[in-house]
Amino acid sequence: MRLTILITVLLITLYNVKGDHLVLGNIGVRTSLAHEKIVTYNPFPFLKRVKTYFYSDPRNRPIVGIQVIDMLHSKASVNITAGGLGQPFVNLRMKSERGSGLNYSIGIYVNPDYQ
Q1: Structural domain tally of the chain?
Q2: Is residue 76 within 8 Å of residue 20, measured between CB atoms?
Q3: How remote is the C-alpha of 26 from its chain's centroid?
Q4: What is the pLDDT of residues 9-67, one digit of tens each?
Q5: pTM of this prediction?
């Protein structure tokens, strides 16, 4: 019985870790969602799809949290190429696995009390 439970927990953990997400900084207490976007890119056979996404805060507030979630739970990857935490802008580069598309949910958080 214990072995069955252990194997089940292990399989659930491996399934949940499959997607490549990016979560940085403070998301939650004393932050507000400044920008939310769903980024999709259609698949093309035998090719990796690459998409860059740029966000710049119109009020020049520094970013305190970034959340990028892979909605497909694929082997796609996401990287920050410029800006990020403490900066008022961020550049994200998303790359799919070969023959697959992209579907990411992006959330940018800022401090609402910043003057």
Answers
A1: 1
A2: yes
A3: 14
A4: 444 444 444 457 888 887 877 888 888 999 888 888 898 989 999 999 989 899 999 99
A5: 0.76
Residue 8 lies in a domain: no
- Please state the three-class secondary structure of 46-80 as a single string: CCCCEEEEEEECCCCCCEEEEEEEECCCCCCEEEE
SS3 category, 8 = helix
Token pair 């994200």: residue: 92
Residue 102 lies in a domain: yes
What does R_g of the chain's alpha carbons equal in angstroms?
A: 17
How many residues belong to the chain? 115
CA angle 93, 12, 43 (to 5 degrees): 35
Residue 58 counted as domain residue? yes
